[in-house]
UniProtKB/TrEMBL annotation:
Enzyme class: hydrolase
Catalytic residues of the enzyme: 167 (proton donor), 348 (nucleophile)
Biological processes per GO annotation: cellulose catabolic process
Keyword Acetylation: no
Protein name: Beta-glucosidase
Sorted UniProt keywords: Carbohydrate metabolism, Cellulose degradation, Glycosidase, Hydrolase, Polysaccharide degradation
Domain of life: Bacteria
Pfam families tied to this protein: Glyco_hydro_1 (PF00232)
Length: 440
């Protein structure tokens, strides 16, 4: 395979994880209950009845995992902080032992020369807040800002780059609209207040982080280029609606100060738009695949439906592999937002593969190598076309608890045996380490 094209010397290379997916240690050291604890322990919600109770046991094995990150040779580690570990009820007192864990993690990263890049919310809302309405309640936005202030006070002397929310579209859609993720509500379009309150919490958290000395703050959105199934008027209209729902609902308010889907809604109060549009230093983009959209059949509860993209490879998850979709997405964002678009970090990009351990103990995940190689070349092309991209983070360092799919989908550069917790470097780990070493 040919060497990767040249990226700027300041380009940040990293790997990403999320707390509930890897930490385990549920109930230890004062950690409160999260909506994912409740959801995963509800029969029929997660494949095979899997839970994140142990996951990768990262809470106890973080030093080993940081060692893997250092061996890989990346610059930064994007992880998430478990809100219920830091503040068990999502309000009131903070848990010193929970904050101590992230102290130890940040210190271990610093000792290895790896920049810490925390995400404050990666879907594990404290159950006590959900009992009070969750993100349907405006109060959760204010509680989130208080939590952000406490975390930056504790870690801000060693952490400069912060992410407020991870993929608010996915949390709203899967958690509150369709019920396939925690907290499992099925509100359809009545879930729109969740979008607004997450973004309000984001804006308030940006201000809290800034007051605490943070120098680079961003939000991470899952974005997808939307492809109409045909040139028919109905399919074009359906694609536009889906683009508005998936992409613009969470980018327009942050970058432009408003969204046609929520402007004028009763849950939008005076001053909210200005808070949500508090200036950012960067924008996180998670990219996995494009989405092909057609008009929904008559009588469908939604005005659009997703249809397959033909003639392309798919991941073990069944997601289409279209590297040029990343280039097209980024160039499209620049066209749409122009000077309002801040510098971008690709904060997640990766794929699940069917990994088989050979007799010699190796995992030849060629499909993952091809995925990463293709997407990095597409990313380089986007930079050549004028998009200011500052970094790329692979999802994920470790195989982990993949939400409603349990342990069935493996995204890691490192295989985890969930019975023994043995970590095994896959071929993709070695490929990326070599690619980064060749560039230094």
């Amino acid at each position: 395979m040919a060497a990767l094209p040249g990226f700027p010397s300041s380009f940040v290379w990293g790997v990403s994880t999320a707390a509930y997916q890897i930490e385990g240690a549920v109930g230890e050291d004062g950690r409160g209950r999260s909506i994912w604890d409740t959801f995963a322990h509800t029969p029929g919600r997660v494949r095979n009845g899997d839970t994140g109770d142990v996951a990768c046991d990262h809470y106890h094995r973080f030093a080993e995992d940081v060692g893997l990150i250092a061996e890989l040779g990346v610059d930064a580690y994007r992880f998430s902080i478990a809100w219920p570990r830091v503040q068990p009820d999502g309000s009131g007192s903070f848990n010193a032992k929970g904050l101590d864990f992230y102290d130890r993690l940040v210190d271990e990263l610093g000792a290895r020369g790896i920049a810490a890049m925390p995400t404050l919310f990666h879907w594990d809302l404290p159950q006590a807040l959900e009992d009070g309405g969750g993100w349907l309640s405006r109060d959760t936005s204010y509680r989130f800002a208080e939590y952000a202030a406490a975390v930056v006070e504790r870690l801000g002397d060693r952490v400069s780059r912060w992410i407020t929310l991870n993929e608010p579209i996915v949390h709203m859609a899967e958690g509150y609209a369709f019920g396939t993720h925690a907290p499992g509500r099925e509100l359809m379009f009545d879930a729109l207040p969740v979008a607004h309150h997450q973004l309000l919490g984001h804006g308030l958290a940006v201000r809290a982080l800034r007051a605490g000395g943070a120098t680079e703050i961003m939000i991470t959105n899952n974005c997808t280029p939307v492809i109409p199934a045909s040139e028919s008027e109905a399919d074009l209209a359906a694609a536009a609606v889906y683009d508005g729902f998936h992409n613009r609902l969470f980018l327009d308010p942050v970058l432009l100060g408003g969204s046609p889907l929520t402007d004028g809604a009763p849950f939008v109060l005076d001053g909210d738009r200005e808070i949500i549009a508090t200036p950012l230093d960067a924008l996180g983009i998670n990219y996995y695949n494009p989405t092909r959209v057609a008009a929904a059949p008559e009588g469908s509860p939604l005005p659009f439906e997703m249809v397959p993209i033909e003639g392309v490879p798919t991941t073990a998850f069944g997601w289409p592999v279209v590297p040029d979709g990343l280039r097209g997405l980024l160039v499209g964002l620049l066209d749409r937002y122009a000077d309002a678009l801040p510098p971008i970090y690709i904060t997640e990009s990766g794929c699940s593969t069917v990994d088989e351990v050979t007799a010699d103990g190796r995992i030849h995940d060629t499909a993952r190598i091809d995925y990463l190689d293709g997407h990095l070349r597409a990313l380089h092309q986007a930079i050549e076309e004028g998009v200011d991209v500052r970094g790329y983070f692979v999802w994920s360092l470790l195989d982990n608890f993949e939400w409603a799919e349990g342990y069935d989908q493996r995204f890691g550069l490192v295989r985890v045996d969930f019975d023994t917790q043995l970590r095994t470097r896959k071929d993709s780990f070695s490929w990326l380490r070599t690619a980064l070493s060749d560039r230094r």
